Amino acid sequence: MIVTLPNKKVTITGMSGFVGSNLKNYLENTYEVESLSVRYLSDQKFEIKTDVLIHLAGKAHDLKKVSSPSDYYEANYELTKQLFDGFLNSDARIFIFMSTVKAVADKVDGILTENFVSDPKTHYGIAKNQAEKYILSKKLPQGKQVYILRPCMIHGPGNKGNLNLLYKLVEKGLPWPLAAFDNQRSFLSIANLCFIIKEIVEKENVESGIYNLADDQFLSTNELVNILSSVSNKKNLQIAVPKIIINNLAIIGDLVRFPLNTETIQKLTENYKVSNEKIKLAIGIEQLPITAQSGIEKTIKSFIEK
């Protein structure tokens, strides 16, 4: 039997960010939602006074590579430890930690499930993985529940991530030169993310643990370009430049610091498929409310409407 408990008090760290602001808007019609401003201090202890603590705050992956390793470990590991200790010593019942699939793997063969052995390669992923391990190392007092959520790439209206960069290419009428690469990867609509979190907060029978978060369908980068072109009413220009030529250009790009380099090619053409079957089973649904394509279309429309 599923029991819903209204009028919970929900506290969110990182509420001014993209995910936090969307989650606030999604939850505030049902719950009392408040923000908790946090940053790491070595001698800090938190007194948690809420029913549900959703920890979103942290340092995101730095694409410009100007952050020091200590920035990641303080923001994503040490701060999480302090908050979780505060949760354990409080009357709060639910702790939700926003981790990442990058805490498990930077590259995926097959489909990423929660059973994969973690082997993160970046300071961002390692710090998140350390936070996960700390949370899992603690015995939960009776009545408390803990959820470690591992989303893949999140998108939605207002998001300024990689989809926006791809949109600019299509919007300028530039051809997509990597059509020869046929990849499959997972995305996560902010609407689906908010839906899942609300389901966890409402239902009393969701088992504590680690859950991957992703949309139901996989999309290739070529399919993304198709969707971008269709929604923005631009001609779909795709060129299948031979892979050997692209890879050689990428090697040159590494040497002369050109935007087309091996790291860029990997991000645009890699396979990164994520299973969401465990979380759907846990919250008792067969499919998420928003399809991958409709979520992408909504995100792209927000770029056009600006």
Automatic annotation (TrEMBL):
Membrane-crossing residues?
none
**Pfam families found in the cross-reference section:** Epimerase
Tell me the superkingdom of the source: Bacteria
All residue ranges annotated as the NAD-dependent epimerase/dehydratase domain in the record: 10-214
Protein name, per record: NAD-dependent epimerase/dehydratase family protein
Species this protein is from: Flavobacterium quisquiliarum
